[in-house]
Amino acid sequence: MTNTTEQTIEQNQYGTFSVYEFGEWPQGSVLEGQTMKRFLGMYETAEQAKSAHPEAEEGYRDAHNHFDHLSDEY
């Protein structure tokens, strides 16, 4: 992914820590122009996650994607 704006370290439902990278959905995607949240890895501790991804910040971030522009028809 190019044009990364942020990486986060988030505690997950397994009691471990997930790292995510944020960018933008590309042209042609049904979510084009919206925030893409991509999983990078899972770690036992926040310290391990931070060591592997020193640029990442601890804390949850929602992509806030919306789907109201999509048709209800199949």
SSE inventory with pairings:
Elements: E1 6-11, E2 17-24, E3 35-43, H1 46-52, E4 57-58
Parallel strand pairs: 1-4
Antiparallel strand pairs: 1-2, 2-3
* Biggest pleated sheet: 4 strands, mixed
**Could you list the spans in which at least 5 consecutive residues all have pLDDT below 50?**
none
* Average of pLDDT: 90
**Helix-strand category:** mainly beta
Approximate shape: elongated
Q: In which range does the helix fraction lie?
A: under 10%
Give the count of helical stretches.
Answer: 1
Strand tally, please? 4
> What percentage of amino acids are in beta strands?
25-35%
Distance between the amino and carboxyl termini: 30 Å
Gyration radius over CA: 14 Å
Task: Describe, in plain words, how this protein is organized in 3D.
The protein has a domain at about 1-45. About 10% of the residues are buried. The mean pLDDT is about 90. Helix content is about 10%, strand content about 35%. A four-stranded mixed sheet has the order 3-2-1-4. The protein has one helix at about 45-50; strands spanning about 5-10, 15-25, 35-45, 55-60. The chain is mainly beta and about 70 residues long. Strand 1 (about 5-10) and strand 2 (about 15-25) form a beta hairpin.
